[in-house]
């Protein structure tokens, strides 16, 4: 891996942190975002997009990492062996000039980065 952080503050915002710190952009493939069956069911009931929860929800305590594409198969095997959890590719790193975007079908949409701000209300 070339970078890694937890996404407890929301995938979109924490991806933005990685991109800014590394001087790169990213494209997230919406159709690859892992969403639990129960979240899909609830989203259908309340008519919301479950991908929005995957991007902007927090408290997930998952890890986001970047790695060269050729390293992905060996990383997937290592993680599966060590922790018995899946490692799911959800996008790619691109030049900074392309920004941070969401690929939804054929569209590339700006990905608004809104990470949880732990200090937002502190001392205000």
TrEMBL record:
<dbReference type="InterPro" id="IPR010918">
    <property type="entry name" value="PurM-like_C_dom"/>
</dbReference>
<keyword id="KW-0808">Transferase</keyword>
<protein>
    <submittedName>
        <fullName>Thiamine-phosphate kinase</fullName>
    </submittedName>
</protein>
<feature type="domain" description="PurM-like C-terminal">
    <location>
        <begin position="2"/>
        <end position="97"/>
    </location>
</feature>
<dbReference type="InterPro" id="IPR006283">
    <property type="entry name" value="ThiL-like"/>
</dbReference>
<dbReference type="Pfam" id="PF02769">
    <property type="entry name" value="AIRS_C"/>
</dbReference>
<dbReference type="GO" id="GO:0009030">
    <property type="term" value="F:thiamine-phosphate kinase activity"/>
</dbReference>
<dbReference type="InterPro" id="IPR036676">
    <property type="entry name" value="PurM-like_C_sf"/>
</dbReference>
<keyword id="KW-0418">Kinase</keyword>
<dbReference type="GO" id="GO:0009228">
    <property type="term" value="P:thiamine biosynthetic process"/>
</dbReference>
